[in-house]
Amino acid sequence: MLTRFSYAYGSTLYVQIWNDRLRILDGKTGITFDESPLVAWHADKPWRKRFAGFGDDVKTLDESHLIKNPFDHPRSLIADIETGAILLRCAMTSLIQRNFFTSRIQVILHPMECVEGGLTSVEQKAFKTMAHDAGVSDVFLYWGEPLEAHQLNVDGLSTPHLQHG
What we know:
Elements: E1 11-17, E2 22-26, E3 32-35, E4 39-42, E5 50-54, E6 65-68, H1 81-95, E7 105-111, H2 121-133, E8 138-142, E9 162-164
Helix pairs in contact: 1-2
């Protein structure tokens, strides 16, 4: 099943999402992004969103910025799909420099919280939409035990908790 994950020239990113943390592991290079899931906009003109930054860097911004966590909701891990897509795109770009010649990127999305009893179809659709909006070509939604880097390149990961979308 993981033969789809091991591209010769593409990249597989393993994205773990917590309420207060976003961790992305590049399965090919081993490089990680592990920061707070925050996105900031300039608040000088509220009718127009101007991007100001993401991750831990936005913690030092002053009150002239609007800071949002797309995964901060009391009942679900997704609070804002649009902001989540922006955050994913920025974080993935910090790991992989994409250009015209860059191969496909596929992502294993792993929600780490709020998954007791599995994910609802609405949550599954929201995670997949968020990843597609971030520019991901193939999205695999996974819940279960955390994966190790070597598992991203091994054939035969068989689990009922892996869904292609």
